[in-house]
Amino acid sequence: MNLRLSKDHGVNPTISVCIICNEETGEIALLGDHYKGEAPKNMVTDVKPCDKCYKKYLKQGVLLVEAEQKGNKQTPTGSVTVIRDEAFKMVFQAEIPDHKVVMVEVGILQMLQEQSEKDGKA
User: Fold this and answer.
1) Domain span including residue 107
2) How many CA atoms lie within 13 A of 48 on its CB side?
3) Dihedral sign for Cα atoms in the order 31, 37, 39, 43
4) Three-class SS of residue 55?
5) Judgement on whether residues 122 and 66 belong to the same structural domain of the protein
6) Domain count along the chain
7) Could you tell me which residues come within 8 angstroms of residue 98 by beta carbon, excluding any fewer than 6 positions away?
8) Does residue 9 have a pLDDT over 90?
9) Which neighbouring-strand residues pair with 65?
């Protein structure tokens, strides 16, 4: 791996936080010039949740991470939710991936929320 240093910020470090609970994971990411400007003190650097959240939420569910498609790259928007395994199979008509994290298109989480509210009123 070739890390290009930022002219202004050097290795430009940030402390990684969990995508679900926003708690520090104990990992430090060195962003170099891949991050424009000074990196924030904390940021989500991985869609895989911390061990605590993985055990708490993904034991019986799947983490859905909303992401924008930019060329060949998916960029998370920051919106996430967890749905039960049974609901995932029913809604997406797919097998549950081993890692239990799925990137979804923008708008899917809102659609699921609206459907959930609609079903709750029936």
Assistant:
1) 58-122
2) 6
3) negative
4) helix
5) yes
6) 2
7) none
8) no
9) 80, 103
Average pLDDT, the chain: 88
d(CA 120, CA 11): 49
86, 114: one domain: yes
pLDDT, one tens digit per residue, over 57-83 is: 999 999 999 999 988 888 899 999 999
In a domain, 52, yes or no: no
Amino acid found at 106: V
Fill in the DSSP letter of residue 6: B
H or E element that contains 23: none
The answer to whether residues 115 and 77 belong to one domain is yes
Q: Do 65 and 89 lie in a common domain?
A: yes
Same domain for 74 and 121?
yes
Measure the CA–CA gap between 112 and 52, rounded to whole angstroms.
Answer: 25
